[in-house]
Design a protein that fits this description.
The protein has helices spanning 13-23, 88-99, and strands at 6-9, 27-33, 51-58, 61-67, 81-84, 103-109, 114-121, 127-133. It is of the alpha/beta class. The protein has a four-stranded mixed beta sheet, with helices on one face. It starts with 5 loop residues before the first strand and ends with a strand.
Length: 136
């Protein structure tokens, strides 16, 4: 079994996933627009160019997401995407990228359990934790 976060966006999923691909060193596996769906269900015009499903490979994990129809979108609440790294330089680089245009709740710093830890919400409204634990 694998767990993969599935993020909902308010019309900017394509932009977010291109940003995550670059910032997190990922590889885009797929990105489908609502307008590419097979004929059958009518697609509202405002959804045609939005993302129905995106899938990004990051290391040995995957991040998935889609644009929600405007009347169904809900900002993330009660969940955070947690990144675990072994390299402090990479942790700081990723923090800097994700924090740009976002809101930092806890700047990247050393804690009693980690050589680097940070909490932030990126410019797309996605909450993140960056954790680079101390080795025993």
């Amino acid at each position: 079994m694998r767990l993969a976060p599935y993020l909902s966006f308010h019309g900017n999923c394509a932009e977010a996933f291109k940003f995550y691909e670059q910032s997190l060193g990922g590889r885009m596996l797929s990105m489908f627009k609502y307008g590419e769906m097979p004929a059958g269900e009518p697609i509202p015009a405002e959804l045609r160019d939005q993302v129905m499903h995106a899938r990004l490979s990051i290391g040995d994990a995957e991040l998935m997401g889609a644009d929600s129809p405007s009347d169904q979108y809900q900002a993330p609440a009660g969940i955070t995407v947690s990144l675990h790294l072994n390299d402090t330089v990479e942790a700081e680089r990723i923090f800097g990228a994700l924090a740009e245009g976002g809101v930092v709740q806890m700047p990247i710093q050393e804690t009693f359990w980690a050589v680097r830890f940070a909490m932030l919400t990126d410019r797309f409204g996605v909450p993140w934790m960056i954790n680079c634990e101390k080795t025993a």
